[in-house]
Amino acid sequence: MTSSVPTSLRVVEGVAAHEGVDPVELEPPLHEVIDTDALDALFQSTGDSSATIEFTYRGKRVCVDDSGQVQVTEASSNAGGSTVAE
Hints:
Elements: H1 7-19, H2 36-42, E1 53-57, E2 60-64, E3 70-74, E4 82-85
C-alpha cells in the first residue's frame, strides 16, 4: 500500500463521498462502530499483507482489500453504486 492516509480516514471519506455529505457529519463516528486503531494497524504498509476486511457502517458495505483500497456500496444491494477511496 502506498497511501500515507490512515485506512480509517479513507473509510470515513469514502462513506461520506458515497452519501454526498461532509465527513464530519457522519454519525455515529467510525470509532464508535469499529476499532479504528486496529483497522489502521492491519493495513499499515508492511509489504506482505494479504488482509481483507468487510464491515457495515451507516447501512453501507465497506470493503478494504489487501492494497488498502476502500470500496463503499449499499449494504442491502449487490449491484448498487459504489465509491472507491484510494
